[in-house]
Every structure is written in structure tokens, then in C-alpha cells.
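Re: your question about 4Fe-4S binding protein

S., sorry for the slow reply, the queue was backed up all week. Below is exactly what I fed in.
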Amino acid sequence: MSVYSMYFSPTGGVEKVLDVLLAEIPFDTSIDLSKHDTDYSAYHFEKEDICFIGVPVFGGRVAPTAIERVKQTQADGALAIIVAVFGNRAYDDALLELKNEAIACGFEVGAAIAANAEHSIVRQFGTQRPDTTDKKELSNYANQIKDVIRHRENLHSFEVPGNYPYKEYKGVPIKPKVTKACIECGICAEQCPVQAIPIDNPSSLDKEKCISCMRCIAVCPIQARKLNKMLLAAAEQGMKKSCTSRKVNEIYI
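Result:
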């Protein structure tokens, strides 16, 4: 039996959630779904294996790049613990989408978690989450998941919130911009999940390829990539009503 941590975490929020869940569940292998040069179809999980699958929620759906790469993997009845991480708004259809796609890959889904993290674009929503309270809740979820693993033979089907057809995801119009401070070190180009930043011209951006995951902003050592202040302010105002109150974490088993 092998335990895997498979995640798409452009700005670190998903990885933080999985770190808490896996703190007391030793795992063997990490699979970073943000790496554009990995052949994910090479991953074939056996029935005895356990895979924690963590993805961010983009507009109420699983981030498109994340779900595309999850769908490339194959499982022969391996146990999946699925985790949808959202920025203190809502996860809408994302958990249902992830559950359905995991089953289509051959996984047996044993638990589903919706967890909060700091919003990747408007950082004042869900700031510093997962915080102390979240970590206590996630640790409690981890103990429940241990029971699922121990008594795997007793697994039964369960429902998660969401609707099908899934809500339409139209992308995010806000794209990072390069400032004059850019020294063309190439770190953002190397780590962009979708190769929207050319290696030979890292001070540019292919807006058609960009998925607004904010990885380039997160990894830039001198903060040379930023968002348009006016667009960011408009996004903050538009999201204020739905994102200000503290949203709860949820587990389904």
C-alpha cells in the first residue's frame, strides 16, 4: 500500500490544507499537478493505494488545469480522499465535479472535504486561512479519515453538494502584469503551470494561455508581477457581500 498526496496549488493554499490533513497520516509520494512537464498518465494507482487529491476552486468549479491532469491518471479501485479548497466564498459544484471525475478515473471515493484558504486573487478574503481554528477542524477530519482507511471494507456511497450540469466557468479577466522591476530571472516562466510565460522572454505573458492562477505573483522574488489596482478594487467590491463572512469547512463521508 502506498499513500499519495496529489495537488494543484499555485499559491500554496491547497498544499497547506493537505499538509494539515496529512500531518498524522504518513504518505509516500507527492504529485504536484502544477508541473507542466509531467506525464500524469504514467500514474496508475493500485487497489491498495490511498490518494489525497487536493484542488482549488475557480468560480465554483475545479480549476480546469487541475481537473485535466487528474483525469489523466488511472486507478484500479484505489481509495481517494478528495479535497476542494475555496477562498472563503463557496465551492458550488467543485466537490461534485471532483468526486465524479475521481470515480471516472477508477477511484473509490472514501471522503470529501471542502476547506477554506486565503483567496488567491483578493487576498483580504480568508486572510491567513487555514488558521488555528481551521487546523483543529482539519485535524479532526484527519482522524475521521483514519477510521475510513481502517474500515475501508465498510465503505458506502455518499452524496456531496453540487449540481449537474455544472455551472459554467468563464475564466477570470484579471491577468498579472509585469512591472519595470522585472529582472527576467525566469522563475515565473519555469513554474507557470500552463507555460503562459515564455522561457526566452519572461517579462511577457500569453494572456490566452494564462489561467489567472497567480503562481507567477506568488513565486516572484522581487514582486515584479502585480494585478491592475483598479480591476482588483472592482473585484473586491463585487465579492464583498459573498466573501466577507467566515465560511465553514465541511466533510462528507
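The chain has a mean pLDDT of 96. The CA atoms of residues 107 and 213 lie 27 Å apart.

Happy to talk it through on Thursday.
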